[in-house]
Amino acid sequence: MGTMHGQACIQTSTLVGTEAVPVEVQVDVGSGLPAFTIVGLGDSAVLEARERVRTAIRSNGFRFPNARVLVNLAPGPLRKHGTGFDLPIACAVLVATGQVPAARIEGVRIVGELALDGSVRSVPGLLAHALGARRDGLELLSAADATDVAGYLGGLVYRPLTCLRAITNGGGHPVSHDRIRTPSYPVPDISEVVGHALAKRALEIAAAGGHNVLLTGPPGAGKTMLARRLSGILPPLDDEERCATALVHSVAGLDERPVLAGARPFRAPHHSASIAGLVGGGSPPLPGEVSLAHNGVLFLDELPEFGPASLQTLRQPMEDGHMTLVRADGRIRLPARFSLVAAANPCPCGHHGDPGRECRCTEAVVARYQNRIGGPIMDRIDLVVDVERIDPDLIVKMPEGESSRDIADRVLVARERSAAEGRPQTALLSGSPLLGACRMDTDASDVVSAFARAHRLSGRGVTRLLRVARTIADLEGSRNVETAHIVEAVGYRKHEV
């Protein structure tokens, strides 16, 4: 068998945060001792591609050259990672050795992992690769089992590939459609929660304005049950939100289909989660829970049990709506606009202030436990609600309550009312735009001033109070913030009284 010589260049991409950065796979097959070398700052998964590519090529009836094979991943200074380079490397080798015509893969970006039998598998972040290919005006060739996800994007031609052998035909028939059909994903209904009218009202306000909520009360009172139903009263994701949220889930290797179906994410990390698990990190850096909750709900149960350092890292995403990871080789910005719902017991034993059970904690222990949350985090929580135990008779009789759909309809109307006036989400308002949106009369302004003076509210505290009042006014269909709206908003600030 004669030695094959030649060169080839294939287009692919690697992930940096949630962005797919273009990479060229350059292959040179030349004279010399047989060797298969990959250069260009690839991680161990990229370097291991040598064995997968060699075996897959032979398993599909092609010849692997008995020559020096050099693979360069350009640009050189960019770090590459993952198994998505398997397929483009294999295609480049086949083109360089003349076994596949170069015309078959012109204008195509190739991403995929190879099994030893040559079958093609999808890789995490395929939606990001698809967005990058559409941005650069290229078709995308990858695994057949990812057709639905990639086909979600309008304006992208996707070529599904089941095995390496099919590359001789340029992959499968092109697939191009604007939307995928996905089944609906049920969420818990708030009608299943008995009682807790005040907490339900607070969740409705939080959903309408994008506010953060803290639920406090004894164990078993229903805090977790209430929190898990917030996502069900939020409006479905619109097209822009779906794409942005699904992109984060795709990069993290999670199933994007619930998000693409319009379901808002609900993330509930355990209090033992690491800082990297919460806000993102690792090598390569991957999205954390705050980014996976983007455009959805982040639920932190047993809030005082989270480490102080972990809680403090939440300050940036809660304030800015994104998380910036700074590493030696650059900065990565990840989206993190979420609604925070936190739950906390009033003390270590959980029964401080509980009329049904005696608390065994001293006042010093209670104060120390409650102070573990920290002022900076509490300063970013708009609504605080006490959740008390429900009468067992109500639980047994299970009276029919208002459904999530009914509340979601009111939430949607309130959001549309805000959008019609050209206002952003209420939780994002501050300064002059907030005051202009409130349009308070003298009586309402006097109530705000009196409360702020009596309880020494900071500027941020006054801003939070006005934001909640503005959301209440939107729910009530009022153009102006009135005294009644201010009074109700004050009721959710009892921890400052």
Name the CATH superfamily assignment of the largest domain.
P-loop containing nucleotide triphosphate hydrolases
Q: Count every beta strand, where a strand is a DSSP E run of 2 or more residues.
A: 16
Q: How far do the termini sit from each other? A: 87 Å
CATH architecture of the largest domain: 3-Layer(aba) Sandwich
Low-confidence stretches: none
CATH class of the largest domain: Alpha Beta
Average pLDDT for all residues: 90
In total, how many domains does the architecture comprise? 2
Question: What are the salient characteristics of this protein?
Answer:
497 residues, alpha/beta, Ribosomal Protein S5, domain 2, Rossmann fold, 5-stranded parallel sheet, 16 strands, elongated
Task: Walk me through what this model shows.
There is one protein chain. This protein is α/β, with parallel strands linked by helices. The protein folds into two domains: 6-169, Ribosomal Protein S5, domain 2, CATH 3.30.230; 190-396, Rossmann fold (3-Layer(aba) Sandwich). The chain has helices at 44-47, 49-59, 86-96, 126-135, 147-150, 197-209, 223-227, 239-251, 257-260, 275-279, 289-292, 308-312, 315-320, 363-370, 375-378, 392-397, 404-420, 431-438, 442-454, 459-476, 483-491; strands at residues 6-16, 19-30, 35-39, 68-74, 108-110, 113-114, 120-121, 139-143, 158-161, 213-216, 266-267, 297-300, 322-327, 330-335, 339-344, 383-386. The strands form five sheets. The chain has a five-stranded parallel β-sheet. A four-stranded mixed β-sheet has the order 1-2-4-3. The longest helix has 18 residues, at 459-476. The model has no long low-confidence stretch (mean pLDDT 90).
